[in-house]
Amino acid sequence: MAMTKMSSMIMVMAVVLLGAASIATAASGVATFYTQYTPSACYGNKNMGNMVAAASDSLWNNGAICGQCYRVRCTGPAYSGSGNPCTGNSVRVKIVDRCASSDGCQSTIDLSKPAFAKIANTDAGVIRVTFDRTNCS
């Protein structure tokens, strides 16, 4: 069945709108990294690998975020004048811990060092990010 010009245009518009909707649902914040992954608030001493992250108080929700996965993208430096640390990659991480402000956490999402290194130069230490929930597989 041949597509008419009108149905082709509708199809293209639908794809564009769906893409825009997925971008619009991404949250933004600040990311840092940490290096000691166990024990964690979600899994105790169980090793959950190294593509993991800790959620800030604003995301924690009494631990309901434990085990959820997020796609994280670097969008730029946290501080102006420090060059662009982003690699252009994204990374999928599983939330395994809490990054509590009472413990000094100043980020939205605290990535494992390997996860941070996948999306940005670790010398930056702090970056701006977008993140959205994704499947863990």
UniProtKB/TrEMBL annotation:
Residues 25-137 form the Expansin-like EG45 domain. Residues 1-26 form the signal peptide. GO terms for biological process: systemic acquired resistance. It is found in: Secreted. GO terms for cellular component: apoplast. Its main location: secreted. SUPFAM superfamilies: Barwin-like endoglucanases. Keywords: Secreted, Signal. This is Expansin-like EG45 domain-containing protein. The gene is ga21325.
